[in-house]
Amino acid sequence: MNKPRLAWAITGSGHYIEECLAFLMTLDCVDVYISQAGEEVLKMYGIKLDDVRAKMPVYRDKAASAPPVGLFYKNYYHTFVMAPTTSNTIAKCVLGISDSLVTNLYSQAGKCRIPSIVYPCDIAPEMETTAPGGKVMVYPRKIDLEGTAKIRTFEYTQVVESIDELITAVQTRLSQV
Asked: CA–CA separation, 84 vs 64, rounded Å?
């Protein structure tokens, strides 16, 4: 292994998923991790997992112990990105629950002091988001906003609030490694 890679996780959020994927597909040296809900959401948006797989390795949430997380201990990854991220995943991360591939990746990245960039789907009391039929307004619950606020305080975690911030954060991180 010559150069560490970027690990990118997709959860079950449709929040600007097409834009996240469009940016992801421009990157090199990336491994994609996808939750079961993430697979379902990609289908709902007409995104073919095979298209992603043709460009980069894709790991699916199929094993109870999430074996790929051990790669963080081998300096295989320099950065972990969760984009877009559901309120469920955020809630589990802030409570220290690592019972899925994605939450385990976040946990292990933090334990290895590997920076994470997180794009939560719940970032404001009123916000526009994407649904399979187009843009819609949503009104995140107080508990969801509290989860987003809490994860902002975590070590080695940068929370972004837009696609532009996500692109800037990832590009900045790539320029540092």
From this structure: 23
